[in-house]
């Protein structure tokens, strides 16, 4: 690993620990030439997943897009960055665990909705209103009624 300060290729690992629920390994290193310390991250190279859009186009699966959608839904809500990262990580893990090379956008959307529903109902409704393309107040109310019914059933 090349030192970011002096470009020397020789360094030693001082400390290693798993991060991102064991998906990534964080390594603290010391350069053998200049002695300065720096951090590197090691992650398994995953196969490239494609997302099949509604119009049939295919795009690369990107966790950053999922994160952006969740961030917008959770804006001004009490959802921490760590919780958002954990949601994105679970969705990414589920996508790769599906063992498919192509996944439809509706699958990704449903995973995001499931995560948001469990964490913050307001964020869930925000995301659902865009994802399900609510066109009027009655479709919005149908979703809210369904949520209230499920809550009532859980309490019983």
Describe this protein's structure.
By secondary structure, this protein is of the alpha+beta class. It contains five helices and six strands. It has helices spanning about 65-75, 80-95, 105-120, 120-130, 135-155, and strands at about 10-20, 25-30, 35-45, 50, 60, 100-105. The protein has a three-stranded antiparallel beta sheet with strand order 1-2-3, with no helix packed on it. A hairpin with a 4-residue loop joins strand 1 and strand 2. The longest helix has 19 residues, at about 135-155.
Find the structural class using helix and strand composition.
alpha+beta
Number of helices: 5
What proportion of the residues is helical, as a percent range? 40-55%
For the biggest sheet, the summary is: 3 strands, antiparallel
Element string (H = helix, E = strand): EEEEEHHEHHH
Shape: elongated
Q: How confident overall, as mean pLDDT?
A: 89
Which regions are unreliable across 5 or more consecutive residues at pLDDT < 50? none
Quick summary of this structure?
The protein is an alpha+beta fold and 156 residues long. It has five helices and six strands; from the N terminus they run βββββααβααα.
């Amino acid at each position: 690993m090349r030192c970011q300060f002096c470009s020397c290729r020789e360094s030693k690992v001082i400390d290693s620990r798993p991060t991102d629920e064991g998906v990534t390994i964080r390594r603290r290193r010391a350069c053998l030439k200049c002695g300065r310390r720096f951090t590197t991250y090691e992650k398994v190279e995953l196969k490239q997943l494609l997302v099949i859009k509604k119009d049939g186009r295919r795009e690369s699966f990107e966790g950053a897009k999922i994160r952006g959608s969740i961030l917008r839904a959770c804006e001004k809500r009490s959802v921490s960055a760590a919780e958002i990262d954990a949601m994105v990580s679970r969705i990414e893990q589920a996508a790769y665990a599906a063992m498919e090379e192509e996944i439809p956008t509706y699958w990704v959307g449903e995973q995001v909705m499931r995560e948001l529903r469990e964490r913050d109902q307001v964020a869930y409704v925000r995301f659902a209103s865009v994802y399900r393309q609510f066109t009027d107040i009655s479709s919005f109310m149908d979703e809210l009624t369904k949520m209230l019914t499920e809550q009532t059933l859980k309490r019983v």
